[in-house]
Predict the structure of Fe/B12 periplasmic-binding domain-containing protein.
Amino acid sequence: MIRWLLAAGIVLNMKTIRIKGLLGVCLLLPGLAACGASGTAASGARDTARPSGAVVTSCGLETRVPAPPERAISLEQNATEIMLSLGLADRMIGTSYQTDPVLPSLAREYRKVPVLAKQYPDHEAVLAKEPDFLYSTLSSAYADEAAGPRADWKKLGVPAYLSAHDCESPGLTPDEVRFDAVFDEIKDIAAVFGVEPRGEKTVKDLRARLDRAVREAPKNTGAKLMWYYSGTATPYIAGHGGLPSTVSELAGVDNAFDDIHQKWPAGNWEKIAERDPDVIVLADLTRGGDGDSAEAKKRFLRANPVTSRLDAVRNNRFIVVPGSAMDPSIRSVGLAEALSKGLTALYG
């Protein structure tokens, strides 16, 4: 049948080729009289799925998903954890680029999903898995040397979703990371897979946690924070527009470098000393690089002649937060919670 259709010049995408039995014949030849209107979900519990599928637009590219995907690949950890939080492990045939230990609540489901590559799988490796949906929160996943451009996958009939926080075209990326955009992305993925009730519940729970963190943060502290992500010789700190800037605003404190209109500018210790932040928020990164862990940052700050004189260092005013929570993801609310608890410990 497939050979006949190819000879007739009909182009099939990978998802169509995988369809088996009578259902496959019905989809390929919709006019066939013998085709009935039966069929059950292939695996796992399902919310009611729309027969017409979903249409979502991500980073300027309209993504049409004719039916809830069954062979999805998440191309990096943030996308993986959003999918697992929505109960979609049974729809996933692969994941890649794990940067941190998976959230404990998701570890069991994560073990069900094959890991395709330590970092990004290349185009041929992804193609060989015959996916029906690709998802990443980082545009680097769709680089030529990685899985390949989304437009190319669209030509193959494979929808590829990208988070609005890191579009291929910088002009399409919002200037500021806001929680509503994180929540909208979760709802988009839920819509793609036909599990909207799960998406609504996930977002409702996250909003409740965020509201509680903001409500419990101490008020009128007047504190100015430096968000210290990585690096020692050249520190990378939070400027304006990133998630730390948004979380600072919600907690009622100032990002000491919010006047720098870059999300993660390279800092200079002498310039930092001039501003002398009241509190230093330390990203605790697990990748093992120079000054990545929170403890490594503390050791450096206390030993360096310039940083050791900072008021926050001399008075041990540090707040440790998970480094992975500083990027827009399912973990983002955890950043607000960690900051709120840290400020409470320092200011009561």
Summary: The chain has 14 helices and twelve strands. The longest helix spans residues 196-216.
